[in-house]
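Forwarding these from the shared drive since the link keeps breaking.
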Amino acid sequence: MDGSHGIPQFVVQIVNTCLAGCAPSEIHLSCGLFASAPLVNPTLFRRIRYDDCLVNNGKPIRYGDIIRFQYANSFMYPLKLKSAKFC
C-alpha cells in the first residue's frame, strides 16, 4: 500500500488466539530501529529502545482482541515476538 507521499504503508495486526483464556501482557517485539511517518499511536505500539517495541502499553490482550496499526516507511520491518508475560 502506498501512502499519499509515495512512502509505502504497512498494516500490523497483533491478535490473541490463545484458547486457554490467557491474556498475555508486557508484550515486547524485536523491531530494529522501528520508525514511522506519521507516528503510530504510542499506546498501541512504541519503540522503547533499539530492537525493543512495547505493544498495547504493556496491558493484557484478551482472547480475540486485535491490536491494529499502520506505519509508513521505505521498507517493512520484520517484527517478531521478543518476550511476554503469560497468565
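-- next protein --
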Amino acid sequence: MAVRFAMGFARDLGLHSVELEGDSATVVTSLNSNEALLTPLGLLLEDIQAVATLFSEVTFSHIQHKGNAVAHALARHDNNIKDLCVWMEEVPEFIRE
C-alpha cells in the first residue's frame, strides 16, 4: 500500500509531521479509528497505525476520487519506471499537464 511506503520515506527524510490523503473512505476511516481492524487488510492497516505513532503529527484525510488526479497520474507513470523515482522540488512535466 502506497501510504505505508510514503510513511517510511517520510521517516527516512526526517519529517515529524505528515498529512496523507486517500480516496478510499473505508481505509481512511479505519486508519483514523482505534477499533480492531477485522478486514483482510487489517494487519497492513495496523502496521500503518503503528508507524504513525513514530511521528509527532499524522493526519489521514479522505478526498474524492476526482480530487486525486495527481496520485492517479503518478500511478500511470509508475508503470514505466523500474526503480524508485523521487521529485523533491520540481513538479514533473507529466503532472503539470
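The mean pLDDT is 85. The two ends are 26 Å apart (CA to CA).

- D.
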